[in-house]
Amino acid sequence: MKRINLLPKEAKAKASRERGLAYALALLVVLVLGLGAVYVQQSSAVGESEQQLADLQSQTAALQQQIAVLMPYQELQTQRTQMTETAAQIYDTRVEWSNFLEQLSLVIPDNVCLTSLSCAVPTTMLPGSTTASEAATADSTAITFVGQAWTHDDVAEFMTRLGLIPQIQNILLTNSAGPAAQGAETGAAQPGTFTVTAELRPFLTAPPTTVLQEVE
Fold first, then answer.
1. Contacts of 87 (CB under 8 A, 6+ apart)
2. DSSP H or E segment with residue 74
3. 88, 210 in Cβ contact below 8 A?
4. Which of 4, 102, 145, 205 is least surrounded by CB atoms within 10 angstroms?
5. What is the H or E stretch that residue 117 is in?
6. Domain residue spans in the chain?
7. Could you tell me the fold of the domain covering 97-200?
8. Is 169 exposed, middle or buried (0-12, 13-18, 19+ CB in 10 A)?
9. How does 70-101 read in b/e, with b if 16+ C-beta sit within 10 Å?
10. What is the pLDDT along the chain (216 residues), one digit of tens a residue?
């Protein structure tokens, strides 16, 4: 038996519109629920990120406090390192006078005797005194020998032997008086006198530019 729809056309159109609205409303509800789920998820992720940031900031502040507490020790270590390096430079650039005097005693001829010996380290070889102006005006004469000899040849031999000492250079004769010039008044034979100067040989390692300072 054939079914016949007795509803008017207007009712059919209204029912079709209502079904379309229901579908649209259901789709809208699904979309809103999806957006809500995404929002909740992103909010949770942002909250976790903010918590991690807060933890990192807290750790950074704690580390900065520790660094501030340890900073004086770092400065002390730096000062100790600088002092150790300065002390090593001073040790490497020291003048070994005991070694020099021992070598001097081996090169003095039998006919020569020293009556005076003055030694000094030039300012250009001292720690903290290596500027160009000081190097230009400093007195380079470090050692002065005053002695007696019977002949000029003895003085020359003494100067030649001084050249064997590695610590000195530029050995110069300042003055020399022979025996006859001094013994003429009394008639007695007296040795002549002489004065010889020399310079300390520059260090292979430059002296430090600073001097040691006491740690407070």
1. 212
2. helix 9-92
3. no
4. 4
5. strand 112-119
6. 10-92, 97-200
7. Alpha-Beta Plaits (3.30.70)
8. middle
9. eeeeeeeeeeeeeeeebeebeeebebeeeebe
10. 556 555 566 666 666 777 777 788 888 888 888 888 888 888 888 888 888 888 888 888 888 888 888 888 878 888 888 777 777 766 666 778 888 889 999 999 999 999 999 988 877 777 665 554 444 444 556 899 999 998 889 999 999 999 998 888 899 999 988 775 444 455 567 889 999 999 888 765 555 555 445 444
- Please state, in angstroms and rounded to a whole number, the distance separating the CA atoms of residues 205 and 88: 11
CB of 131 within 8 A of CB of 186?
no
Cα dihedral across residues 111, 116, 122, 127: positive or negative: positive
Query: What's the chain's Rg over C-alpha atoms?
Result: 50
In one-letter notation, the amino acid at residue 36 is G
